[in-house]
Fold:
Amino acid sequence: MGDECEWMKLPIDQKCEHKVWKARLNGYEEAAKLFQKIQDEKSPEWSKYLGLIKKFVTDSNAVAQLKGLEAALVYIENAHVAGRTTGEVASGVVNKVFNQPKARAKELGMEICLMYIEIEKPEPVQEELLKGLDNKNPKIVVACIETIRKALCEFGSKIVQLKPIVKALPKLFESREKAVRDEAKLLAVEVYKWIRDALRPPLQNINSVQLKELEEEWVKLPTTAPRQTRFLRSQQDLKSKFEQHQAGGDDEEGVEEDEAPVVDAYDLLEPVEILSKLPKDFYEKIEAKKWQERKEALEALEVLVKNPKLESGDYADVVRALKKVIGKDSNVLLVALGAKCLAGLASGLRKKFQTYATHVVPTLLEKFKEKKPQVVQALQEAIDAVFLTTTLQNLSEDVLAVMDNKNPSIKQQASLFLARSFRYCTASTLPKSLLKPLCAALLKQINDSAADVRDAAFEALGTALKVVGERLMNPFLVDVDKLKLDKIKECSDKVELIHGNKSATATKAVKSAPQVKVAPSSNSGDKVDAPATKTAGPPKKLSNKVGLTKKLKGPGPASAPGGKGKKAVEIKEVEPELSIEVCEERAASVLPASCLQQLDSSNWKERLASMEEFQKGVEVADKKELPCQALVRMLAKKPGWKETNFQVMQMKLHIVALIAQKGNFSATSAEVVLDGLVDKIGDVKCGMKAKEALTAIAEACSLPWTAEQVVAMAFAQKNPKNQAEVLNWLSTAIKEFGFAGLNVKAFISSVKTALAATNPAVRTSAITLLGVMYLYMGAPLRMFFEDEKPALLSQIDAEFEKMQGQTAPAPIRKLVKRDADDEETPEEQDEEENGNVQDLLPRTDISDKITSELLEKLGDKNWKIRKEGLDELNTVLNEAKLIQPNIGELPGVLKGRLNDSNKILVQQTLVTLQQMATAMGPNIRQHVKTLGIPIITVLGDSKANVRAAALATLNSWVEKTGMKEWLDGEDLSEELKKENPFLRQELLGWLADKLPTLRSASSDLILCLPHLYSCLEDRNGDVRKKAQDALPMFMMHLSYEKMVRAAGKLKPTSKDQVVVALEKAQAIVPAKPAAPSKTSSKSNAARPSSTVSVRAQSATMNDDTDAVALKNDPKKNKSGSTAKIKPGISKKVPSKQNLKDDDDKSGPIFIIIPNAKEQRVKDERALKVLKWNFTTPRDEYTEQLKTQMSSCVAKWLQDEMFHPDFHHHIKALSTLLEHLESETEGTVACLDLILKWLTLRFFDTNTSVLMKVLEYLKLIFTVLSKEDYHLTDNEASSFLPYLINKVGEPKDVIRKDVRSIMNMMCKVYPASKMFSFVMEGLKSKNSKQRAECLEELGALIEVYDLNVCQPTPAKALKEIASQIGDRDTSVRNAALNTVVTVYNICGDQVFKLIGNLSEKEMSMLEERIKRSAKKSSTVSTKQVEEKASRTQGLNQNATVPRKGCEEMPSKLNQARSSNAHSSSESNPTIPREFQLDLDEIENDNNAGRCELPDLVQHKLDDLYEPVCLPEPKNRSVSPHFDEIHGSTDSTINFVVSQVASSDINTSIQALAQIDEVLRQEDKADTMSGHIDQFLIATFMQLRLIYNTHMADEKLNKREILKLYSCIIGNMITLFQIETLAKEASMGVLKDLMHGLILLMLDSRLEDLDEGPQVIRSVNLLMVKVLEKSDPTNILSSLIVLLQDSLLATTNNTPKFSELVMKCLWRMIRLLPNNVNIINVDRILLDIHNFMRVFPRERLKQMKSDLPMRTQKTLLHTLCKLLGPKIMDHLALIENKNESELEAYLRRVTKHSMALTGGKIDSDTEKGGSTIEDKESKAKISETLAEIFKKIGSKENTREGLAELYEYRKKYSDADIEPFLRKSSQFFQNYIERGLRLVENEREGKGRISSSSSSGFSSPADESPYVASSTSVPSAVSTNGEEVGPAVYLERLKILRQRCGLENNSKHEERQPATSLLSKPTVPTVASSSELLHNKLAHLRDSREYNQEQESHHPPMQTNSNTTSAANLDDLKKRLERIKSSRK
Structure:
């Protein structure tokens, strides 16, 4: 009870988790009550239980679980957050509830699942239930099936996905458990209710008994469709309707039945892969001579294609084989069999067969000439199956081509095929543009002599009438007589349309198994059909012959391009010619009799009066009764058009225009007047009236027809004036009417005639007309004139150039209709105007040139022959210029060339395809699947240039086709599926560019999502980045919800990452481009995308969605098209391109993305992107910036910013200026990118751009200051250095602006940080820049005092003072003025801060200070006071800009002007008045100078007091420095910088301090990170000594030796600390070794007393460097140094190169120990670079063979150590062919075994001779190496000699010669003496004492260069132990003698000295003394402790002759303390 009392007190949620089941039971009960009480579904209480609901349903106690299930059900029903628990709870139900014995638990589990579905979570529930079907427990399986069945029954097939259920059913029927089979049967019955017969194919393979049972159950089912009875939360409106229907009976049942979803059985099937199952000899058999073998192959294929759904693949070869059988096989049975196979293939592949459809349809149609019913039926089935895979639009050309065939069977079957195809169409998928040419061909056939042909045509026309309706069909049937029209209508009544209905019975042609969903394929055709101009070629000829005429109501609309030649025929037949009598009679009804009588009067006044009456009569007449032909014939009566009076003639021409405008003016009427109008058009007085009349006639009869007639008449005459004016009129008319329907071919012919005219006016008019045509046709127009003379062609090009960039104006006139068909005209007019003008161009059929020989060449095995084939194809394309899409089997062959192994041919193929796209135009779209998708595959090529060519080809194709064809189907997703990083990143990048330009995209785009998500997790960073960039573009078309839903199918880990990425992408989804206005679309619809450069951006101009949108509302632009608006002025009628730009430019230019700037900074820090640091900008920086801007800057602005033309940069800057105030927030968000872009502009040479940049910068920093914004360090570092570079511009105006901007920057960036950047500017070679930077520094110091100086005042001022010695006057003056500014602040302390100056520089400075003392500051007393008060507040925080300090920039300006003024005063010609002004305020100078604290000044002064004493005065620099800065790093930086000082004492002091740090183990680590810095300073000092100090005769050489000694001592100490030694980088080590070798070769040192000793110390140092440095870095540096030394011709002697090679040899010997830690890739890269510069031939030409031997030795050693694996280390070498390295390594590795077994290279030999005994060679080599190692160490020398003696005794044939040969002669002698000594001892012949120390004393002294021998045991042991002390004892003895000290025996024995400090004198400063003592103590302690020690101080020699005894005593005590502490 106690326990129960405890849990009773717990809260409900804790009870639910309690370990006691009763507690949980109670908790569940209370939770259920609580859940029912909570009214608010969004209450926070629900969230408490989110993690507990799964435990509710999976409770281990059965009783508690029941209550838990009840509570969970209530929770799910009421909680808004319940959806989050779906997956885990559903899984728990399936696994832990459905297996329970209690029925109640099972029921509750089912209810929970159904409730989850109700709250919009059907997918995860269904997923878990389907997983349950695989459970081993049959109870769970049965429960899952039952739950699925119940869910389907209640929610219907719209909610529950049937495909996975149907897929699982066959497996369930195979279960051993009867309960499972029974439940599966019930589920199958339920599924059948919803999809009916579509379920049969997936279940056709189950047990026949089960299938029979199912059939029986299916028959019992009602025929009515089932209805959804339970609804989702989002379907509550449907629920209410359902309840109303239930209440009102079943009257609405039909409505519900219509709502049942149509399921295609095809979608439920699993695809079967058949290509691999084809017989291996299939292709051989199908071409066999015996028909039986061919039949055998076809039968095998027939079996395979019977599968209802086929896996996608490359069926090109199969289709080609079938096509050959159908088209050429003589055996008709095989033809029929081949057609059946083709039908099966098309039905099984469906959409995927579309690629092959256009290739097989012509063959099928031609084969209809066969009369055998069996063959005809098979062909019908095949062509119908093929039709269902594509659209009628794609097949129309092939059908039209055979409609005029001589064989009646072909014509009949083609018409029947059209009839069957029309049944699948709707009014929207059978547009007029497609219907028009088809009807024209069918109307011709209704008059055919063959009855079968007529009947088939009637059936086709009747079907079309049924589909589109009479209103749309009647215009095509106007000339059909009544009997035939009735027959068409009769056929129409009999037709039953499919309209996408699944229930409708398909024709025999359709494969019976899975009925095809027709609606989707038809709908897809709707978009394809949109461009209304695909009927080129044969339809033209047909249309000319067809007698289609219209009634007497005037001409029809302008014909489509397919019927260019038709118009003349149509219009001539519209109105018969009237006799003159009839005309007079009809004219009399309108005109008065007097008017008719006076028409031919001889008096011109009467004729004029008659014309006036004529005009009045026409004006008042009713337009419907106006007899146009009669009136114009009256006007043409004598004198007619020969009228001599210009007034009468003008009236006559005006009346013609009036009649044309008012009446139904026919072509017959027009022909009466056109000749006269053309004759008068060149008249000066009447020409304008004639043009007006022509324009009116064009409005009445259409411009295409009128223009064709007028041009033909003009060029039939010989009057050049008329010809020129006709062309001028035509130019104007085209602009007014637009370009639609014009006969381009005829015009081009006429223009060519005009260009050949002798009259220049005609030629000029022709060129003007070409310019207008260019506006509409673009670049293709030029192709027709390429054969003109060069002079003429240049004029044409000049005209085209004028039009470049202009847009075609919107048409302001159109064909005017005045009959009952008014409402139909706009539709057709719109359609025609929406056509593509490129289709107007005459195209050549090149199919006859695509010969079998050419195809064989393209497929030949020899690449040269393949290249010949491509060249021939290019020639064909070049000659044809524009081609028809019929290119035979060429696509299949070219596809093979895209996979060519020869990359050059791949690139040539891509160029050919690009050329083909240009030549074929929009018709290239039918080859997208065959050739376009393989182009995408090429994007995966490893070579960048091939990928670039593929991308260019791809874009050229898309420009012609639009994007629809590319996005349809699975092809794109299949490409993205390939795990090729190049392909993925290129394809995603391409999609990211193209998708934002589309207003809509294919639904198939969703198929790419799984692969897009996998790209987000790709191991390749570029792929991930491109995938992230593409996400928003996909989301733009698919929606966030769909993409999240698709992500739900991923693994949990992947899903989380993808969802996060989707959420980020959601914030930056671009808006879809707005649909262009009707008028703009009309004006430019026909304009090709190649017209101007802007067109490239609108790749979707021909996109089908545009045309559909336009077609849906044809009347929308009716008013707009007739409005008289000038293009370019009205915003309502923009051109297409301008409209796009206007839409884009209307929005904001910046897109604010949260935290984007911070992310960019993180990426730069993590080195994911390039750091913005360069001398000149490279392309990768520009591309990176462009990529970063793409997500946050408007696309159009980005195009302007990165345009190659500077004019666009100015536009971009103007835009930025305009939007600065309005988009301040966006500007700040993208500030880092803007500043980076501006830095790029700094490198432009155009002054206009630079001035605009500076203008923008001034404004932006003003705005940022107002916004109180502070620049980040990232922004400043990527901008300030480049701004400072511009301060050195030669133009004053630019320099002033830059200084002004630097002034303003102090408001937004701390002055102290800015100071550092300006200091960097002093390193420039530009003297103007240095001078300006110095002035800026002076201004900053004047305003912000010394606190602004970075890193320290002393360091900064030293750098500034160093500029005083500059040879440029302006720099010197600026430096002097800046130092004077400091002097004015801190007084004499400035001399201590600036360091040592030469006498000349110091005198200049003192003179300037004196002059400044006489002068006064230009600032008033009041301003000085303000400055003083301001400074007090600034001293504490000078680095933080504040709003309160806004007066500072003005002060800065004053300071700058003051500096500039001071600079000018340094000139000798200074006006006197300025000096007088300064004298007036001389006293104020002292007031502003006492600002430096006295403490600091005191300490600095103390440094100079005891100058004459040998005390370590400069040691106080370090503590003072630390006091100021308090940072160890800054202290080290300061001391290291002093190492390179030109002052020897300063350098020695700094070295002493560093040595002190290095010698203390606990402090040595502080040098970490500063090693490179220290080494750089060191070799700079070495260089300074070598070049300057040694050459200075005045300088004491002892001082130089002292400095050398300190440097070498420091370096040896450093390189004894391995961790620090390994920090040295490659470049630094190279320079260091260079300096040390030069030092060793310095002949000047040998002349000095201690010179040789220095050389030996350097020798020792180099050994340390070689052994202790990072082996990769030192080896790499030596290789590079050798290369440089061999290249150099001046500085380096042969000896230098030889010493470098000796160092390399030593490193080679160390390779066996280091090979595992060396970066072999880097070493091989360096060797590769060496061999590239020095190939074998060049090395052979050298005098010495050492370089070649060294190179070979190194490579042999590496090969020997690494073996064949060395070939894996060539990854860093980009182009391995540039050197012989790879080939050489292959040769060496090939013979490596022979080399290891045979002769060993003496340079790399490590082992001894072979021993025929127990031990292997490797073991012997190791043993000997260990023995020699002992001999080389001072402690184990004797032991090593004894072991060597024993070893030789044991192995008498052992050869130790190789080991001895590596050492010096002295060492060899020493070993021999030692061995003899051991032998004597063993044999009792006496004892010879041998001192190891004495034995080791000589080698170091004797060997001139240690690196030349293998080991120097006397100097340094092989295991890195301390150097033998005996070496230094001798040196110390010499030193003591020179210093006048005694040399007693004890001291000789015990007092060690070091070569590191072997110098005649010690420094006069204490730090150097301490260095010496520390080293002595260190060496003393390293000796054996059993020896007696005595403390003796080393001699101290100072500049004075006396030595301080006190100092010596002090040093003695210190050394004693060290000794005792070490003991």
The radius of gyration is 49 Å. The CA atoms of residues 576 and 668 lie 7 Å apart. The chain has a mean pLDDT of 75. Residues 1694-1714 form the longest helix (21 residues).
